[in-house]
Specification:
Layout (H helix, E strand, L loop, with lengths): L1 E3 L6 H8 L3 H8 L12 E3 L9 H4 L30 E3 L2 E3 L2 E3 L2 E4 L5 E3 L4 E9 L3 E7 L4 E8 L1 E2 L6 E2 L4 E4 L10 E8 L2 E3 L8
Antiparallel strand pairs: 1-2, 3-6, 4-5, 6-14, 7-13, 8-9, 8-12, 9-10, 10-14, 11-13, 14-15
Helix pairs in contact: 1-2
């Protein structure tokens, strides 16, 4: 399978998504300078079944700014709802082991995970590090991400209403105990979900 390079991607990010080093991908594809690839370039990925969302693995950037009121989708004027009931065990921002792109919410294994806002499921599968993950596209360039699920309950292309069950809390991927890793992205930039969630 070939991965078509999108804007802002590089061989390191692509390799992380498919579990290859950038050196391996450069060698496989005969790329002399692995630090220079072009948007639209086709990168051969041995053994891959389909193109993965590279930006979810290693985002190009994050935002520490509080969003303006106009940043919310029209359908979400009253704010995103909490996807699961529980205590926030890890907040958005810098941690000792790197930058945390979302919030972790502790909950019992199997607890229902709800769509924080209405939208369309654009990814529902396993992803390296995230385990079972669901990604929903909303209006105004916003995405919500639900990871480490025991089981995904939706499929790509499904139209989802706010509050619909999309998954069950689990500990798949890099997780030491059951919890929901939840992200909100605006134009592919990680945002602090607590700014968007109803208080």
């Amino acid at each position: 399978m070939y991965h078509v390079v999108n804007r802002g991607e590089n061989l390191f990010r692509i390799g992380k998504a498919y579990d290859f080093t950038y050196q391996e991908l450069a060698r496989i594809n005969g790329i002399e300078n692995p630090h220079k690839i072009e948007t639209g370039q086709r990168i051969f990925i041995p053994g891959a079944a389909r193109q993965l969302p590279v930006e979810i693995i290693t985002p190009a950037s994050v935002s520490l700014e509080r969003p303006r009121a106009g940043d919310f989708p029209a359908a979400g004027a009253d704010g995103f709802i909490w996807p699961v009931r529980g205590e926030v065990s890890s907040r958005f921002g810098q941690r000792r082991d790197g930058f945390h792109d979302g919030v972790d919410i502790m909950a019992a294994e199997g607890s229902p995970v709800l769509a924080a806002e209405s939208g369309e499921v654009i990814y529902s599968d396993r992803l390296r590090g995230y385990g079972n993950i669901v990604i929903i596209r909303h209006g105004a360039g916003l995405l919500s991400v639900y990871a480490h699920n025991r089981r995904n309950r939706v499929a790509e292309g499904d139209r989802i209403a706010k509050g619909d069950i999309v998954a069950e809390v689990g500990d798949t991927g890099r997780a030491s105990s059951p919890h929901l890793h939840f992200e909100i992205r605006k134009d592919n930039v990680a945002q602090d979900p607590l700014y968007y969630l109803q208080q």
